[in-house]
Amino acid sequence: MPDGRGEEGLTAGARQHAPAPRAFPCALPPTREVGASCIPAVRKRDFPVRVLMRLDIAGGLLQVAAPTHSGKAGHKAGMGQVIGLLGMCLVLGVLARRSGRFPDGTAPAFNAFLLNVSLPALVLRAMHRLEFAPGLLVAAAAPWLLFGGAVLFLRLLGPRLGLSRESVTALILTAGLGNTAFVGLPMAAALLGPAGVPVAVVADQLGSFMVLATLATLTAARARAQTALSVRTLVRKVVVFPPFLALVAALLLRPLAFPDWLESVLQRLGDLLTPLALFIVGFQLRLKGMRPRVPALALGLSYKLVLAPLAVLGLLTLLPGLALVVKQATVLQIAMAPMVTAAILAAEHELDPELAVLMVGVGIPLSFFTAPLLLSLVH
């Protein structure tokens, strides 16, 4: 590795499945408590007795602990924690709405905080520490293809179902952005092992993150405007979007190390993103009267969970020389459920937030079944 640690940061499982030496997309400090969405640096004597993963991700911070288990058992335990936290936050949101103790303006206030404070903090910290390996360009490009395909597919078929411009855009945002961080990274670790995590990281950070801060923001701004916006106005809306500003700042400040106190502040603010975002999704989730929404849901989720991953798999088979783990991790990330932050972005721009929330609330449980099935098709 370029930081001089050689293979010190690789786990035994990664050495077994990947040729050495190999460049990984992240350079980490020599500690098992790591940031920037990377595979952990685990010393030989610690693996597989204990694995402690700390992943900073677009959905928030996830800590996966697997004490006194084998590596495989530890990955399964980590995935169980993910599912448990997802379910708990969604249920708490539903219960909070039914309790009547939260005012009507709860969702907009939380959405504004997440998009203007938590997400920029997370982007600034994660992107500042990420390093890219050119061999993983395919994984970085796949989320961009996912979003572009969503624009074409849903703008073509959405109006034929009688969907409004706002509803079509809500589907584009949620079907075009995957939960490649909070769900995707632990699932990659559980299903592919340590060798698959670096590929999943690149798809998340240089793919989904970047699309959210640029194309997704641009799409939401155009749909929200009542009149046609000039190119200058659209560019300005993207440039002043706080997560985009954080992205630019992170790239400009890469030569400089953040002080410990700033790392701590950014981490704690970023940690709030996933639980609060899922809480608000649950708060706005209303399954009663969902029947009229079924056609739109079926259209959006069929693209996100089935058609898009199959299309990416088909493209990957045409590229010679790709390692199997690169194909597997890329397809797995594209098969992830809709991104929670995409629903928040849709709600912030008043783009059919009910439909966006349903895409997330229904899509996440379904993805736990569809993603492994799609992965089994990758050879």
Word description of this protein:
The chain has helices at 12-17, 71-99, 106-129, 137-157, 165-175, 184-192, 197-224, 231-239, 242-252, 260-271, 273-284, 294-317, 324-334, 340-348, 353-375; strands at residues 50-57, 60-67. The radius of gyration is 20 Å and the shape is globular. It is mainly alpha-helical and 379 residues long. The chain is built from 15 helices and two strands. Strand 1 and strand 2 (60-67) form a beta hairpin.
What are the key terms here?
single chain, 379 residues, mainly alpha
Residues in helices, as a percent range: 55-70%
CATH secondary-structure class: Mainly Alpha
Number of domains: 1
Number of strands: 2
Q: Report the major sheet.
A: 2 strands, antiparallel
User: So how many helices?
Assistant: 15
Mean pLDDT reading: 78
How do the strands line up in the largest sheet?
1-2
Q: In angstroms, what is the radius of gyration?
A: 20 Å
CATH architecture: Up-down Bundle
- Beta percentage is under 5%
Spans of at least 5 consecutive residues with low confidence: 1-70
Q: Which descriptor suits the 3D outline? A: globular
- Quote the distance from N terminus to C terminus: 28 Å
- Any idea of the CATH topology? Na+/H+ antiporter like fold
Structural class by SSE content: mainly alpha
Q: What is the string of SSEs from the N terminus onward?
A: HEEHHHHHHHHHHHHHH
